[in-house]
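Re: folding output
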Amino acid sequence: MAYTTIKPPFSLKYREMSRHELNAYFQWFCDIMPTRIGMLEEVVTQTPGFETWVADQTPQSLDILGTWFLGQVETRPRTVGEQQDLATRSPYPIDIPDAELTNSTFSLAMDIGMYFSQVLRRTHPSLKWEQPLKDKKFADYGQPVLVGFGLVPLNPVRIAVTLAYGFAAKKHSGSRLRELFEYWSSRVGN
């Protein structure tokens, strides 16, 4: 089976989506999660050297998954328009990298974020899904987040996308996914 890139039936421009669209997105996200985790398990186990990986939602499974993901991250050149758009949106002058993650990498990050969330929830049953809708200025407005870490919610998809950027920049090893799990686990109930 070839990996099928996730295609949410929404714009994912959360601040521009109506409440109805945001609620539908949240429901879609929760409903599609088991299917996407199944697809992730299938694509991982089709990779030579990773045939025995099982999506058993244990912290140990993140060790192998992180190493696998490191080898899957790909980038593409950013267009001039994308670079200009990023520079325009930033209130501060920053260097804009000339590479962007591929659609396939973003899709894998979303799937890995979903899986990461399920490992956390299985390990810490007190964690719950929420969708922040009070403040459009909130970074995770309209997105599924896990709560139960004190004041700071966890956006598992954002964590996985950020991890992919770190892998692309060669800033992390495959063990980083498990390290993130340990960090967030230490924050449960705080």
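--- second protein (sequence, then structure) ---
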Amino acid sequence: MEKARQWNVPMLLVKDTVEAAIHAASVGFIHPDAIAGIQTDKRSDEKAPTDLEQLVEE
């Protein structure tokens, strides 16, 4: 973060991808409509793996 600050590059510490997406939309980096999909992806990523997914990972 210090290197970024030295080069006047803004840096934001966020708790998750949804918070990052909200910020990105607020400054015009992404379209606000993208936030809903990011929220859905986050919920999906947080679900426990299915039995099949566990088998494939082994």
